[in-house]
Amino acid sequence: MAVKLLLEKAHIEGIRSYEVYRREGGYRSVEKALKTMSPENIVDEVKKSGLRGRGGAGFPAGMKWSFIAKPEGVPRHLVCNADESEPGTFKDRYLMENIPHLLIEGLIVSSFALGSNDTYIYIRGEYAWIVDILETAINEAKANGFVGNNILGTGFNCNIHVQRGAGAYICGEETALIESLEGKRGNPRLKPPFPAVKGLWERPTVVNNVETLSAIVPIINMGGEEYAKIGVGRSTGTKLISACGNINQPGVYEIDMTISVEEFIYSDEYCGGIANGKRLKACIPGGSSVPILPANLLLKTAKGETRYMNYESLSDGGFATGSMMGSGGFIVLDEDQCIVKNTLTLARFYRHESCGQCSPCREGTGWMEKILHNIEYGKGKISDIDLLWDIQSKIEGNTICPLGDAAAWPVAAAIRHFRDEFAWHVNHPDESQKRNFGLAHYADPIYVPVTA
Amino acid sequence: MSEQPLFKVTIDNITIEVPAGTTILEAARKIGGEVAPPTMCYYSKLKGSGGKCRTCLVEVSKGSEKDPRPMPKLVASCRTTIMDGMEVKNITSPKVLDARAGVVEFLLLNHPLDCPICDQAGECHLQDLSYEHGKEKTRYEFQKRVFHKVDLGDKIQLHMTRCILCYRCVFTADQLTTNREHGILDRGDHSQIATFIQKNLQNDFIGNVIDVCPVGALTDKTFRFKNRVWFTKPVDAHRDCDKCCGEVQLWMRGDEVYRVTARKDEWGEVKESSKGSTGWICNECRFDKKKVSDWIIEGPSNINRHSVISQGHYVGLKKPNETLSKVMQGRDPKLLMNIHEVSEVNKENIQLSLLERPAHSNDFNQ
Amino acid sequence: MGFMKFNEQQLAEFNRLVARYPEGKQKSALLPVLHLAQESFGGWLSEEALNYVAELLQIKPIEVYEVATFYSMYHLKPVGKYVFEVCQTGPCMLRGSDNIIQYIENTLGIKPGETTTDGLFTLKTVECLGACGYAPMMQLGKHYKEHLTKEKVDAIIEECRKNAAVNN
């Protein structure tokens, strides 16, 4: 059994309530942090832990914290990003639904480290019932002296507020989230200034993902160095993976980043293999934005080595032959799935979610969707494939926020690895409406040249 | 206040010194010419503008003297401040030119290209941009976006299909008026400038949205279809106005004032007035003072000689000998030709404007 | 219809929402207040409701319009009593969301974006709701209905009809 730090207690009966959570050792990290550590100590521990942001970008959390500006007399804020909207990702929801106090505990410790007296959880609007769960948890914690004024008699004040979004993927981008929290349209801001200097209401702000902030609890309890021993290399600690698509056991799994992709898909402890006895065709291992990989490149790197479920190994080979850990949304496609159709739904998603502020994303996402629509429904041209490639390359890197990249990468990767499936759609407009391209050669072993 | 330190910055191999805090774009404008990146959304007089259109993207090949690493992505020059020793590539970077051509294509994707019936034609920044940085053909084969018509009253004409969502008019309303009534509605590729409720824009300074609009999305309704800008002659004029600086440009033909606008600088932005503030003008000066007698004429405006507006308008140049009037013994030449007598195409009895589709050769055989 | 106003209980909730933010930053409460208004005023936001929210928060009406039109959860036109918001993004598509949408269309006789003539059901297709592991799924009011099958859809429709009959 692998180490579990976040979900270890998630299935204990009644863990949603303060009493059970406390009885199981909850809120120890608050006592330890507020009574025996300084904010600087906590930041140091988080740095030592090597914890990387779990929202998708994987930026070292301790480093992000150390950037926060501390001008005299200006309040600072911690904002928890619970706007989980990346297709394939539902881990934060799982955590908040099942063990909400873990997040609250992490929030208090983190707020203390950053000096935030008013901390906000920005949760996606559709998770309406989770707002109630969180508010109940906050009220319980408040009644027991862990939230509110003068926490544990230390003189530290911290209130936690839950803010509901209203349906916009873009608000997962931290500056769009801040805009939304200010009651505006979710248009990402131009950086600099970064939120650490001018964030919410122009005050220094840190925005962290739900899972990142929850991971602060074990880091404080066990110490940063111990935490860093779990996992491998720069992929320290545990990571929540939300697995979905054509697998036998979709769900949220906590892994310690040492297992192989193959084990994750096929072992009964995790995904339990491909559903209905079919074969694996492709997989998007880190949420819809990251490059899709055909089966052969998913299980093995281009060098023929085993691919593991961690930041480094998943990105081995760069975008040419690798992918990314991203947010941990693990989407599996079986042999009967159509890559063109899948890419079309993702392109439609990004077109729908583009805020419309900058031109490459606003115009380019819709254009890609239209072309993909033509190809999928047998009206495509061979030149469309190259055109798609060119459009995505004109979007990538040229937009205000990463949504442009997120829209470009899935299209690029699909063409890079599945070009013949696109071409088949174009060349067989009638047949492609009746059947799928199938597995083809996408699971064949990769030829690895032997070097002397 | 302490003196701002001067930073050295090199743009397209030309080095200048500018005060710390200057943006790459402003530094490039100091060098001038083609080194200055084109801008569609940035407007130096509007706080918070810029960063959206991505036409001014440049490559930073050296971050600064202290940290010489290049920036990983192209940056919006209008919103990136220079560092000491920074090196920037604009027209010397193939990457920039390629990205810019891409941006132009994106901006034109849903633009109707109805220049022949657009009042902005001739002074349109999108026309200039596509001419200078775009490709000759589009690869877009789908229907263009259309919007429901929104009526902004009897002074300002909104053509949403032409809008490139630069947000300048929103900043203008925010910063020049106390009660903004229009804004950006919806999101993504169906975002639009609108009032949500059908409402006339009414504020003494709201007319300035026409001057800041880079395309023909917001035009002067009192000038609508009256003339082409290149047929009118711009002259500088002023009047005593208790609301604004009263310093304007009159667009005249003969003795008739067709249009009144603020005065523009070489970047197409509203100029500073003689009192030092930005020369925004009020609605009264813009829409209601259309008689020469309302104004004190200062003289012909300076117009960039590359502009189409400069045709037929030769300031500081020796006029060529008017031989024609000599031939005609002092009488002015007159055109007395009826186009329908020589052309089979545009027959008087065929109302092309009533057709609901493009004209077809059959239409002329009736 | 009388003039649109929050009742006492709704006003108390409004005050609770506004109290979370520093003084002068009451605009921050706009998103939650719009949710409250939508729930309070018949499931959608009319022009009158939006103007009322602007007045309560002391902001310009256009600031409210800009926000209300940006976010996909605000309905700016009347909707049915029960809104079926069915996810159609990649992960749900892989698990057959297309068939579920088709089935609902056939059963209710409406296309996405339409409302049944009895005013009971509105069908909407939406993008990823974060339930990819429990696909196909839809949102119905405050809650998710997951692992949808044709039988389950039938049962949901039946239940809605029953509830509507009881409440009338």
Radius of gyration of chain A: 23 Å
Compressed to H and E, one letter per element, the order of chain A equals HHHHEHHEHEHEHHEEEEHEEHHHEHHHHH
Distance between the termini of chain C: 19 Å
Please name the CATH architecture of the largest domain in chain A: 3-Layer(aba) Sandwich
* Main sheet characteristics of chain C: 4 strands, mixed
* Total number of domains of chain A: 3
Question: In the CATH hierarchy, what is the superfamily of the largest domain in chain C?
Answer: Glutaredoxin
Strand content of chain A: 5-15%
Instruction: Give the end-to-end Cα distance of chain A, rounded to a whole number of Å.
Output: 40 Å
Poorly predicted spans of chain C: none
Largest sheet of chain A: 5 strands, mixed
Mean pLDDT of chain A: 94
CATH class of the largest domain in chain A, named Alpha Beta
Shape of chain C: globular
Can you put this structure into words, describing what you see?
The complex is a heterotrimer of chains A (452), B (366) and C (168). Chain A is α/β, with parallel strands linked by helices. Chain A folds into three domains: 18-229, Rossmann fold; 235-334, Ubiquitin-like (UB roll) (Roll); 339-434, NADH-ubiquinone oxidoreductase 51kDa subunit, iron-sulphur binding domain (de novo design (two linked rop proteins)). Helix content of chain A is 43%, strand content 12%. Chain A has 19 helices and eleven strands. Chain A has helices at residues 18-23, 28-36, 39-49, 61-66, 91-98, 100-114, 128-143, 174-181, 210-222, 224-229, 261-266, 295-299, 311-314, 318-321, 339-353, 359-376, 382-395, 403-427, 431-434; strands at 77-82, 118-123, 159-164, 205-209, 231-232, 235-236, 239-245, 251-255, 280-284, 293-294, 329-334. In chain A, strand 9 and strand 10 (293-294) form a beta hairpin. The two termini of chain A are 40 Å apart. By secondary structure, chain B is α+β, with helices and mostly antiparallel strands. Chain B is built from nine helices and 13 strands. Chain B has helices at residues 24-31, 94-109, 125-133, 168-176, 208-212, 283-288, 323-327, 339-342, 361-364; strands at 6-11, 14-19, 57-62, 75-76, 86-89, 156-158, 183-185, 192-194, 218-220, 233-238, 247-253, 256-262, 296-300. The model of chain B has no long low-confidence stretch (mean pLDDT 87). Chain C is an alpha+beta fold. Chain C folds into two domains: 8-70, Arc Repressor Mutant, subunit A, CATH 1.10.10; 82-167, Glutaredoxin, CATH 3.40.30. Helices cover 46% and strands 11% of the residues of chain C. Chain C has seven helices and four strands; from the N terminus they run H-H-H-H-E-H-H-E-E-E-H. In chain C, helix 2 crosses helix 3 (47-57) and helix 3 crosses helix 4. The mean pLDDT of chain C is 94. Classes of the chains: A alpha/beta (452), B alpha+beta (366), C alpha+beta (168). Chains in contact: A-B, A-C, B-C. At the A-C interface, strand 3, strand 7, strand 11 and helix 15 of A face helix 2, helix 4 and helix 5 of C.
